[in-house]
């Protein structure tokens, strides 16, 4: 198993033993998580791909890996094209590919704990047209050949106190009970890890960079709940916090409990609950309501305590980033700094706050050509030296008990080219267009996504990802259902109206393959806007992230007066928020970075 080719061969041998003619390998876990624990990193183990979204299909004579536009370059660097075909999504779905490549009459396996029922129905239909069968496996064949597969985390849960959550778990469960009553339902299954963490006001460390614990829950119409989690993970503090209304069961008891809901009206989310959950409910005779998890929207609309906590976290995190940017400006032109050492130095600045819980994702520390890979992950093997003449892009964030941060900045090492300045300024114009957008209630993020792209479209350019994603409150750095993305871009999806209280990122970019990448990202809060004479309620954004935007990359002549005014106002606020946290030398540096754009 020393090479990825060996692993692919071993899986094919296992498929023969299991009488399967193929197998589908998604990058997720039993909770449909975006980020997963080491035990669930099956796609990475099999292929070498280190991105956060992708899938693969293995057939006897062919294998394909499916990634979206964020990973076009990365997948080719990390996955051997001699053994794997690169397939772009959403242009080609796994079901489409299987319908064309699956052997006539073959049995294609899938793990029902790793796919939604909707995916199963789509794939089964495509295979049926080929005379092939989609077969659920009782055990995942990759696990049979992955000898050193990590064990799931045994870390204990932690209480997220009411002073940080802003609402008690009992009150949240009461809201869920009211939701069930409106639908004449007896119970709802919660399987998304961040939904469980939010509803029960607990956090964990079972998934890297996301403070959640491996668990399932069933919340009942009387406000009581059954929580399925390894009992050794529940200390006395958590047990007292949950109280008698929450019954603790071993995680292995979850599937049998589903089968025991005979005759009950049970809600489950078709996008977040895996096919195996629906199969168990059906087999047990429950009446299933396929509806969205009631926590999803409630969690997305932050309360006043969560908003205040987030602002505190942002101010703290912004000071750490400013210190890093000052360090980078001085040290990178001297040589000797690498992508990896820069990422480590930024983490050290965050750790110096004394309250950092974790990073919110693997830092994207990218110079030159690696900056053109939107979701680049630096490793010891890929880490490049940072050299003069390049752009350095850093996309990073921290997890603090009061908030989750995510910010991207770009700095030049040496003198930037005119092309770099032009593209950076156009990305900035798009960023300002989102930051200043005003729109009627009911507007979706997809409707305003083009605001950010227009300055690039005007010169025939674009970027291959959505403009913004939702962000949790000391939870997942990528949270739904809110987003700023048209359906034809990665990150797009079903239209969801933006609502006051939602956190989102504002992150347009530009990527020139093989040369450089640019992205400017702040987090924003959806707020109500008082517009004189408005004929309907209006919304807009309040910017939450404060860090200097590199002045030497801006071409002032491309900015309108309104855009210059926004930039100067933003930088004045950066000084106001960060200045008191910095040393005298650091403040002098920041003042220079935040001068009005027309000042020399």
UniProtKB/TrEMBL annotation:
User: Could you cite one Gene Ontology molecular function of this protein?
Assistant: metal ion binding
Q: Which SUPFAM superfamilies match?
A: Creatinase/aminopeptidase, Creatinase/prolidase N-terminal domain
Task: List, alphabetically, the CDD domains matched.
Answer: APP (cd01085)
**UniProtKB keywords:** Aminopeptidase, Hydrolase, Metal-binding, Protease
User: Does the record carry Glycosyltransferase as a key word?
Assistant: no
- Enumerate the spans annotated as Peptidase M24 domain: 310-528
Peptidase M24 C-terminal domain location is: 537-597
The answer to whether the entry has keyword Cell wall biogenesis/degradation is no
Cellular component GO terms, alphabetical:
cytoplasm
Instruction: Tell me which residues make up the Creatinase N-terminal domain.
Output: 7-136
Q: Which InterPro entries is this protein grouped with?
A: Creatin/AminoP/Spt16_N, Creatinase/aminopeptidase-like, Creatinase_N, Pept_M24, Pept_M24B, Peptidase_M24_C, X-Pro_aminopeptidase_P
Family statement: Belongs to the peptidase M24B family.
Q: What is the name of the protein in this document? A: X-Pro aminopeptidase
- The species this protein belongs to is Sphingomonas turrisvirgatae
């Amino acid at each position: 198993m020393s090479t990825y080719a060996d692993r692919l061969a071993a899986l094919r041998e296992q498929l023969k033993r299991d009488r399967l003619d193929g197998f589908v390998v998604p990058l997720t876990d039993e909770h449909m998580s975006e980020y997963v624990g080491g035990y669930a990193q099956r796609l990475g183990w099999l292929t070498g791909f280190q991105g956060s979204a992708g899938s693969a299909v293995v057939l006897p004579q062919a294998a394909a890996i499916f990634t979206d536009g964020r990973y076009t370059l990365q997948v080719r660097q990390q996955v051997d094209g001699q053994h794997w075909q690169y397939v772009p999504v959403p242009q080609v779905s796994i079901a489409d590919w299987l319908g064309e490549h699956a052997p006539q009459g073959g049995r294609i396996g899938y793990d029902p704990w790793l796919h939604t029922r909707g995916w199963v129905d789509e794939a089964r239909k495509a295979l049926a047209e080929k005379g092939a069968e989609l077969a659920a496996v009782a055990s995942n064949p990759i696990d049979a050949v992955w000898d050193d597969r990590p064990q799931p985390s045994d870390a204990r849960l932690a209480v997220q106190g009411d002073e940080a959550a802003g609402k008690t778990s009992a009150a949240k469960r009461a809201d869920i009970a009211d939701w069930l009553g409106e639908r004449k339902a007896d119970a709802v299954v919660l399987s998304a890890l961040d939904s469980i963490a939010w509803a029960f006001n607990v956090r964990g460390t079972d998934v890297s960079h996301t403070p959640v614990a491996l668990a399932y829950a069933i919340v009942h119409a009387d406000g009581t709940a059954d929580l399925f989690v390894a009992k050794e993970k529940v200390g006395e503090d958590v047990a007292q916090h949950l109280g008698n209304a929450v019954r603790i069961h071993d995680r292995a008891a979850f599937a049998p409990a589903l089968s025991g809901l005979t005759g009950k009206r049970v809600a489950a989310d078709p996008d977040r609950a895996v096919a195996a959950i629906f199969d168990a409910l059906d087999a047990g005779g429950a009446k299933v309501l396929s509806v969205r998890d009631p926590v999803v929207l409630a969690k997305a609309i932050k309360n006043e305590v969560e908003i205040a906590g987030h602002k505190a976290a942002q101010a703290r995190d912004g000071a750490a980033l400013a210190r890093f940017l000052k360090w980078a400006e001085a040290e990178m032109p001297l040589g000797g700094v690498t992508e990896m050492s820069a990422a480590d130095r930024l983490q050290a600045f965050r750790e110096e706050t004394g309250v950092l819980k974790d990073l919110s994702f693997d830092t994207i520390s990218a110079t030159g050509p690696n900056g053109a890979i939107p979701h680049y992950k630096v490793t010891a093997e890929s880490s490049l030296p940072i050299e003069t003449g390049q752009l350095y892009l850093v996309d990073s964030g921290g997890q603090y008990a009061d908030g989750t941060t995510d910010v991207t900045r770009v700095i030049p090492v040496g003198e930037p080219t005119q092309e770099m300045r032009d593209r950076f300024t156009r990305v900035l114009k798009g960023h300002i267009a989102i930051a200043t957008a005003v729109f009627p209630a009911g507007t979706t993020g997809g409707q305003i996504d083009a605001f950010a792209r227009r300055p690039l479209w005007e010169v025939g350019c674009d970027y291959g990802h959505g403009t913004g994603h939702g962000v949790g409150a000391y939870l997942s750095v990528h949270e739904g259902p809110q987003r700023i993305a048209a359906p034809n871009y990665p990150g797009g999806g079903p239209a969801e109206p933006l609502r006051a209280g939602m956190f989102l990122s504002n992150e347009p970019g530009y990527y020139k393959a093989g040369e450089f990448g640019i992205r400017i990202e702040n987090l924003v809060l959806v707020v109500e806007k008082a517009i004189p004479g408005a004929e309907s309620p209006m919304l807009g954004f309040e910017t939450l992230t404060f860090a200097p935007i590199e002045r030497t990359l801006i071409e002032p002549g491309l900015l309108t007066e309104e855009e210059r005014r926004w930039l100067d106002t933003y930088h004045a606020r950066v000084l106001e928020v960060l200045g008191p946290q910095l040393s005298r030398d650091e403040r002098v540096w920041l003042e220079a970075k935040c001068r009005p754009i027309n000042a020399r």
